[in-house]
Amino acid sequence: MIEIRPRADLGRAQHGWLDSRHHFSFAEYHDPLRMHWGHLRVWNDDSIAPHSGFPTHPHRDMEIITYVRKGAITHEDSLGNRGRTVAGDVQVMSAGTGIAHSEYNREDEATEIFQIWIFPDRSGLPPIWGTRPFPVGERAGSFVTLASGMAEDDDALQIRADARLVAATLSAGQVAEYEIGAGRKVYLVPASGRIEIGEQTASAGDGVAVRDETRLAIKALDDSEVVLVDVR
Q1: CA–CA separation, 64 vs 61, rounded Å?
Q2: What is the distance between the alpha carbons of residues 97 and 99, in angstroms, rounded to a whole number?
Q3: pLDDT, tens digit, 9 for 90 and up, residues 52-65
Q4: Distance from the CA of 61 to the CA of which of 99, 111, 161, 163 falls in 20 to 30 A?
Q5: What does pTM read for this prediction?
Q6: Distance between CA 132 and CA 142 in Å, rounded?
């Protein structure tokens, strides 16, 4: 089953400094049919105005991945971590027993991010945070694993969940394939461009929910950037 969820049908919040689309129920947006997708709980598509952002707030028992699509995000937390993650790169935060953090756009242009929350496999662990660069050229034409809790993905940023975040940049006409394990679900979003998947078309910002499939073939109809999460 491959279901396209058009960007226009997603939840939306506009706060002046923040324009956010919610793929799943979040804050004031509630849809009982879109509470989560397997262990994937949140996928927010955020545009943050220059010199603004999320003030310090707490989290616990959640794996939080930030995929920066444009601009940069600056993170500070109660563990003393501080980092700036730029477009194409990823940061992860395992909230564990509790962490407070802020996320600001210190840039002179809007910053665009996907913020993705995944339920952890275990609770009660100490919080951790990390970031690293992932050159866009390395994911040209095929999917590259950026964050994962799977044992075989030791080169990726580590999370505490049986889940994986991958991304690919495709030129028009290119096809990227992704194998899906038994009993697993996939959710993907074209960050840019337009793709064909299962004889359906998804445009930038649309969500694609996948279950009961073993392999995906994703064809770029335009130059495209695709972000995919694989969960139980």
Answers
A1: 10
A2: 7
A3: 999 999 999 999 99
A4: 111
A5: 0.97
A6: 20
